[in-house]
Protein 1
Amino acid sequence: MALLEVKNLCTEFKTDQGRVQAVRNVSFELGEKEVLGIVGESGSGKSQTMYSIIGLLAENGQISNGEVIFDGKNISRNQFSTKKEYEEMMSKIRGNSMAMIFQDPMTFLNPVLKIETQLVEPLLNHTNMSKEEARERALELMRLVGIPSPEKRITQYPFEFSGGMRQRIVIAIALACNPKLIIADEPTTALDVTIQAQVLELIEKLRTEADSSIIMITHDLGVVAKLCDRIAIMYGGKIVEIGTDKEIFYDPKHPYTHGLLSCIANPENDDEEELTPIPGSPPDLLNPPVGCPFVDRCTKAMKVCKLYPPEVTTYSDTHQCACWLCQKEALNK
Amino acid sequence: MSEKPILSVKNIKTHFDVTKGLFAPKQIVKAVDDVSFDVYPNETFGLVGESGCGKSTLGRTIVKLYDPVDGSIEFNGVDISKIKGAELKEFSKDMQMIFQDPYASLNPRMTVGEIIKEPMIIHGIYNTDEEREARVVELLKIVGLKPDHIRRYPAEFSGGQRQRIGIARALAVNPKFIVCDEPISALDVSIQAQVINLLKNIQKEMGLSYLFIAHDLSMVKHISDKIGVMYLGHMMECGPSNDVYHRPLHPYTVALLSAIPIPDPNIAKAKSRIVLEGEIPSPINPPEGCVFCTRCSKATERCFKEKPQPIQVGNRIVSCFLYER
């Protein structure tokens, strides 16, 4: 059984200019101990999808449709009559069986609280541990994420840590209650390459040691290639293609996936082939295109792409793609 | 190469005084310390390194936004490290800069036309406004914008388009050399390739030289002929980009390259990384010997005491005792 099931999720934001449809009909599943990468450009809705799942949408945001089933339990907002009930239920899950790692560790950590207080907090909230036990567990976590001399460091404040070390603390907090699902929102974007390598190494280690599933949100295809079992490509608030790492990298179907892969430089390639950029810029989600979100930038766009949202073509149990062209090719076979 | 370098940087040092308070002990950040390299005409020199390694400071020193405390910068055979006033103005016509943040580097109250025209007015390149306007339209076409964008304001453009405006402004005075300081880091992947291709085409057509500063090693390798790797204000290794990438010599380059995530699952999952321990030391108080000694797996006692001097190894220059004969 899948650990997480997202069905037809739609999320909107009320703004002065109108409703921004950030997430439009997103569905996917995540198995146990699986690492799913969600790739997309800024504004593609990848972060908002995750915030909708974990219930951290901004004030003006709301889930307008869809279901989220986590660990066999429906945790969609519309299952609860009042916001208070929903929040009560979510606060039991959040930080406990579902945890999140944020992009910028400095805005996540409270600057005026000691590391100890912040590490112990989820343990005291979600488990029956005593203060001493929680402190022991906190030290153990700090060792696990590779912070040297944890006994000394635990009494320090976030500003005394460097960027990479702060991200380790954030990861330690996320791991505190052995979560079943960790959502990592661009965990290495703010870090330098050598520090990024350290953090990726750590996430990889956790994957084998802790029994968690991970959803990794990123725009760096190198990071997904390294870590993920499956990859979902998002564009204009929709998942346009989803498949295993090999299916996405070696057998991409959607023109956007093709475009994305051919506009990044692969340093292993020496022959000076030109990068093929995708012309134009992403759609405005205030008035999203009725048809395929990629239609304005697609070199293979047809008439139907403008008029109707593309249907999903299934290539294998794991590989699906929403594109009219794929649908047409599949029908012709 | 028998050609003369267009830019020749020798033992340049840029230091900042960060002493706090009147009687506090003097504290100096050695942002760039003893760096030398050459850039030849029509060539792109890529400068890579982690944040705080001094790559941007070096770029800004070369366009004379900062004054170096020591060393020389020869541009077209003339030492520009100490020039001032009219000479500096004349020099800046040949050397322009493209900035990282396209949101901060364009004045929001000026139209695109005014922004691109400004350097022409300052340098008195055209006599009449009609000529300037015609040139702006031409430049807009070169960078892939429409002529009717001329009356619009920067706020109406996306990040990638703004970066194009920045490029048009840099080209306005027909420079010979452009310092690109992380011109693509603020852009989305699909837009990055657009800007990179634009820069490459312009270089081909106008015969420009670039100093391309970035932390994204894959892009730097793609665009550069030569790469210089910086760490804590020092140039660790410098040479032709393919050679540096495939046969890195300096232990830091080796580690830095192994840390790049390769966008190919088979290679990426099989690749073993050399994970560097710890972080970059503070530039106020750098290690006494080799600046990399605190994180280097091959460091010997000597590395902690003596500073390695740059030595020529084949077609490369490396600052490491390992390659001393």
Note: The domain at 7-240 of chain B is CATH 3.40.50.300 (Rossmann fold).
Protein 2
Amino acid sequence: MVLDARDMIQPAAAASEKNIQEVLAQGAAGVSLRSVTKKYGSFTAVENLLLDIPAGSYCCLLGPSGCGKTTTLRMIAGHESITSGDIYIGDRRVNALPPAKRNTAMMFQNYALFPHKTVWQNVEFGLRMRRVPTAERRVRVGEILELVGLSQTSDRKPDQLSGGQQQRIALARALVTRPQVLMLDEPLSALDENLRVRMRSELRNIQKQFGLTFIQVTHHVEEAFSLSDQIVVMDHGHIDQVATPSDLFAKPASKFVAKFIGDNNIFAGTVLNAVPDSDGLDMIELAVAGLGSIFSRGQATSVGQTAACSVRPDLLTIVSTAADAPSPQANHLTARVVDVELTGYVTRVGLLTEATGQELLYKVRTADWADAGISEGQAVTLRWSAHDCVFLAD
Amino acid sequence: MANVSRRYVLRTGLAAGAAVAAARCGGAPEGTPNNPATGPEVNTNQIKDVTLRLIGTGVSQINEIRDKAQEDLGFSLDMRALSTEENNQIAITQPDQYDIFDGEYFSLPLVVPSGNLRPIEIAKVSDWDKIVSFFTSGEYEGMPVEASQGTAPYKVMYLTGPDSTEFSDTPTDFATLIPFQYNADTLGYRPDLITRPIETWGELFNEEFRGKTSILDIPQIGIMDAALVAESLGLMTFADKGNMTKAEIDQIIGILKEQKAAGQFRAFWKTFDESVNLMASGEVILQSMWSPAVAAVQSQGIDCVYAPLKEGYRGWGGGVGLSKNLEGIQLDAAYEYLNWMLEGWVGAFLGRQGYYSAAPENSKQYMSAAEWAYWYEGQPASEDMVDPFGKTLAKSGNVRDGGAFKERFGNIVCWNSTMEENTYLVQKWNEFIAS
Amino acid sequence: MSKTWTVFKPYLLAAPQAIALAVFLVFPIVLIGVVSFWEFNGYSMTPAFTLDNYIGIFTSQVTLKTYLNTFKFVGLVWLATLLIAYPVAFFLSFHIKKLKWQVLLFLICTIPFWTSNIIRMISWVPLLGKAGLVNQLLMGVGLINQPLEFLLYSDFAVVLGMVHLYIIFMIAPIFNSLMRIDRTLITAAEDMGASGFDVFKEIILPLSAPGIAIGSIFVVTLVMGEFVTVRLMGGGQAASIGKLIQTQIGSLQYPLAAANAIILLTVTLVVVFSILRVVNIRKEL
């Protein structure tokens, strides 16, 4: 993949407001999944999905491979039939419609540009297949190529373009048919790290500019966080959580989500006690074997049940002396520093609890870590507030 | 390479000394022939180490003959079966690849000028005078064969001198090939599908058999069959079928083209197996055939007649000759082999398959009276005739098609030929195939 | 030392192959070219420089006629192999999902190669001969009264034999190029509203064109020089340049055969380069 200056031309520079309005002739549409299930023989790929994606939002389906996110996307696009349930795009039920009739367009992993066709022919393809008259095709393809800033490449073949240019051609090809919903199947996974970050912001810009509904499949947490209005975390064919990035970050809804979205420290135990706290949440005391009580906040389950709690690695503090017994304000435990990894601005510190040997992670500004003067092998006390600790029911 | 080094070692052991041996090795056998009969070279210990390499057509390269020869002679034979064309090509272009050439007489006008054959000293062939007289003198009891056209064996039998590549019209002391296999070819047909007897070459172009006949796709032989047919039908005449003029070639090719266009031929054949297959499958019911091919069809349990025709037969003959590479003990071994060929066992072996021996009287002692009577004298078989491979070729009471040896051999009217206009013939033949 | 090595390494690595090609391909062809100018008589050839061989070939009616006949075989065999091979390859690559079955069925396509020429040719007789299965069947159901003779020892039989023999050379490269088509391209085309026929015409056919070209090159070059099948299936009555050359070699007319071979090589190369001009096959290599 070649990264050249043209990659960084903002499409907006070339696009007039009028063009965008034309492209958006049909406006955006929301997508709604109602109890959608997909089975392959006896294997259930996704089960009973309930999901509303608002019109004009950027939604990411996030999850590990095999979680059913791609199947879900393909069902919305119409490349996969559904076993039961309904899919609505806008207010149209599209269960039985072929892909081309759904007012959707799809951008594929590796873009799936036709290698034997020129850029112009690639973009024109969808219009030709819809029997759009030649004259109109010429106008619309010209407009959209101008919009993505690639008019000058129209006679080239895809393999003569840089990775960024290929992505924009793929976008142009998807947008030229004026879809209401654009679906993206891991569009960035083939790119190197540097380009991926840049392309990400370009995708986000285009989505904002066009105001279309974007549904993107990704297994890349950071990508989902940086792009989405709404993240749908999936696991084993189920939706675990639907939330905005900031909510997801602050309040993972399950142990799986907490683990998957980051390096959260998770403690499993049994509910010992729960009392109502402010803003409708409960303050829950969890008995963790070998570590004593850990306090967290959330919707309590009944006493005696197994549960867990999670704290983000950046919300821990390290103190060199043990404090008082745990209180609702400050959880603490003793751990030994075993690994220090400097990743740039942030330093990742790996620790093992003295009592149980559980691995923990602490993230700290590199500058602050240097000030703390703690070295590997040293025993320290970790503290964190119960307000930063999320209760996770099993 | 293995052979060269073996010879090298062998010669070194002989006498002359390393220097002489090396010189001989490098210098190839040129100039005067070596006198092979010097004392120490005839030595049973050494002759065991000799291997003679034979090239020949598949028909004659028979393992049983090789095994018997090795047993009787005490040295090894290495046989290589080739098509007629390959055989000639190797004989002419690759003289180092063989010690004994087993080929047809009509190939000799091509092979002999290459200088790759060593003239056979007749004095060393003990049974020369037992060979059928036509081969050695061109005479045979005043039968039509004496006037036969084409490359008759005796015309290319003698060379003018010990190093000569020139044929002699009259007997000399130097021969080209010792006759080995020979026979008279004619039309073969399926009596179950053609109910009347076929008695003339002209039948090959009879409309009755349109799309069911075949001829040989080897220009030099095919043209001869066509000439016999044309003459028989009175379509044209030849001054000498065995040496046609360009005008004659044009005319006979023209006739062949007409016949091909009219759909007279089902197919042309080039190998023994093809001719057998065509006849046995019934795709072709009348074609020019080699005598053993008729036998091969019969051995499949299918009736096939080798037709005695009133115009006579087309003859062919093959024999064995010596490579110019031979010298010393190798050459001795080769002469021993030639003499063994005439001695009778081989003749009888071939005789039981329907071929004729070069020296029939010698073969007779190896054949039973019943076999001799059936194969050579044209008498009804007094018992089942079984070939050396255990196949019954004729039931008791059968008479050989064409009758006695004298009847068949004596009525050969032309031979497979190499003509002076060979190049032109091939060109016209290609034209015929492409038409 | 190591610098020298770096400079010479690519040449040294390429050397064995280059030498092999030079010795076993280039040199013999040059030799054939040289011999084609020699003179010859019935049994020997003489080094010389004569254009007689070429003049003879170019002024002969037979040459043109035989070339036309050869081209007829090339055209018919090419068309038939393409029309049969493409659906077979398409079926194998798109409708057989399991690799195991693909491999197995592909191997079945190679069966014609498991037997020798002679066996194969002999076995056509009971099938296509006058009393063969096909004729018996047709007569049995009353479609014909007389056996069809054109089934064997005819141009039809030659084409049939060669199609049977060479079809795999068409199937293999087409199958290969079809297998290499990224299946998401098809999904993408469907996503943009392409019908099944559109997908084939716009995506699959153009992307498998290099496979068709390679298969065509195989088939064309093989049929151009073919003489065994022409002789055996044509019953010796069909002419081709290969057979003409073989007859000339058989009659020891090497210079004439060499001149014909040089012309055949030239004509074949012209055909191959024409194919290469139409289709870019680099992606397949």
Note: Chain B touches chain C at residues 85, 88-89, 92, 109-111, 113-114, 211, 214, 217-220, 260, 265-270, 273-274, 277, 281-283, 418, 422-423, 426-427, 429-431, 433-435 (CB under 8 Å).
